[in-house]
Every structure is written in C-alpha cells, then in structure tokens.
Amino acid sequence: MESDGFRAHRALESTWRRLYEALDDASFEPRSDLIIALCPSFPIPQCNGPWVVEDSPAAVSALPDAIAEVEAAGAWPWVQTRTGHDRTQQAAAELGLTQVERLPGMVVRPGELAVTPTDVEIALVGPDDVDEANRILAASFEAPKELLERFSAALQTIDGGSWYIGRVEDLMVSTALALTIDEATGIFNVATPPEHRGRGYGAALTAHAVGAGFEAGSAFAFLQSSTLGHGVYRCLGFRDVEEYILLTRPVAA
Questions:
Q1: In the prediction, which pLDDT does 1 show?
Q2: Could you tell me the pTM of the whole model?
C-alpha cells in the first residue's frame, strides 16, 4: 500500500511538470534517477536544479553534469533530496552545495481538516484583482513583483488552478494558490504581508482552498511548508509525511 508521503511526492512532481509545461523557457526532464528542473527566469529554490528520484549510484554519477548544466544556463543550482537520500546529499556537499534548507512535506485528508473562523472574506481572483494580489505576493515573499506576475500567470493557465484572495473591510490582506490535479490538491504561495500576519488570514485561505479541492473530488491535499507556516498548517490538520532537504552553494557574505 502506498504511503501518504509517496502519494504526496508523486503529486508534487506531477504538479511541477504541469507548471513547467505552461512556461515557454522551462523544462522538467527525467534523467538518470534525477529530474532536471530548469527555468532560469525564476531564480528561486527548486526552480533550477536536479530533483533526486532515487538515491542511486546513477543519480550520484549524473549530479555533477546536472549542476553544471544549470549553472551554464545562468541559474543558481538547488538539489532537492528527501529523507534517506544520504548518498546524493553527500555528493552534493562534495560539489560545494553545503547550504541546507529543510521543507516538511505535509498532507491532510477529508475529515482531518480543521477550520478556524476569521473575519476574512474569501473570493477567487478576478481580472481587477490581479495586480494587487501580485503586490501581496511580492511584499510577503520579499521578491520582485514582475517575477511573481509571471509565475502567477502560468499557474492560472493550468486546468484545476484556483487563485484565492482574502479581504477585510475591502482591504486585500492575503492570497493563496491551489492546483487540483487527479486525486490531489496542491497548495502554493500562501502569502500574507508582515503587517497582516498573526490574525489567521493565511490559515483561512488555506482551509478554504483545501475544502474546495475536496469538494472537487480530491483524496488529499499536500504542500511543502516553510518554517513560518509549519505550525499554522499543523493546526489545520496537516501532518508531516516527508522531509525535503534542499542543498545549494552558500551565498558569499
């Protein structure tokens, strides 16, 4: 019987493959027990670099060329591994990728989701909301708005994609994206600017997006959590089912 961790990881790969197909300059190519994700126009973790599929000698042997390919394209390489991928993690470290970021992989199923009431009004993003929603994303992630505009636009072209915003007294305070593909709903870009945090807005949007996915027939919802959001997702009923270990080169001081 497949574990929730296995199902969630398979859904994550499927979702990213669909996203890269929606981008003109992106590729998500299986190769020698790796998947090479390449999209230099998105210089953020996981968008450029090998994802380890199997912790095998073939993956270790392919790692140097994969990293060199990403760097030759002008991108900063990240290697995504999982718990138990000791050989590829060691190989990445020997290649100079010694900075480590850990992301819990989390899952919630129908019947496990907890909803906390708030005063936030939730709706799908309309044409007049796009610019402000991207501003919320940029302020929350401290990233260029132009970068997030393109990412959001690509996500909206995928069947099963839903972009939600939360308002309080007509003021936009939070946003979240969901992708329902096959039996799974993935949650992405849950974003609340610092001045609006701590009031349950991101949790409310996440729960709403997950509930909509369940109503559409999803068997589970999944996400990769930041440190900031982990406690929030646990309170909503999400469980840790995997740990992703991302490795990259340290940024010089």
A1: 63
A2: 0.93
pLDDT in tens, 100-153: 999 999 999 999 999 877 899 999 999 999 999 999 999 999 888 988 888 888
Burial call 82-119: b when 16+ CB within 10 Å, e when fewer: beebebbbebbeebebeeeeebbbbbbbeeebeeeebe
Residue 108 DSSP code: E
Tell me the residue type at 37.
A
Q: Are 163 and 182 in contact (CB under 8 A)?
A: no
Question: Is residue 207 left, alpha or beta, with left meaning phi > 0 and alpha meaning psi from -120 to 50?
Answer: alpha
Q: Determine the residue type at 150.
A: R
Point out the residues of the chain with pLDDT beneath 50: 253
- CA-nearest of 161, 175, 160 to 130 is 175
DSSP state of 125: P
Rounded distance, CA 21 to CA 133, Å?
24
The neighbour count for residue 211, using CB atoms within 10 Å, is: 16
The Cβ-side half-sphere exposure at 21, using a 13 Å CA radius, reads 9
Helix (H) or strand (E) segment spanning residue 201: helix 201-215
Cα–Cα distance measured from residue 150 to residue 223, given in angstroms and rounded to the nearest whole number: 21
The C-alpha atoms of residue 11 and residue 108 are separated, in whole angstroms, by 13
State the Rg of the chain over Cα.
Answer: 18
Paired tokens of 207: 């729960």
Cβ pair 104, 224 in contact under 8 A: yes
Q: How many CB atoms lie within 10 A of CB 30?
A: 12
Q: What single DSSP character describes residue 251?
A: P
Of 129, 87, 108, which Cα lies nearest the Cα of 187? Answer: 108
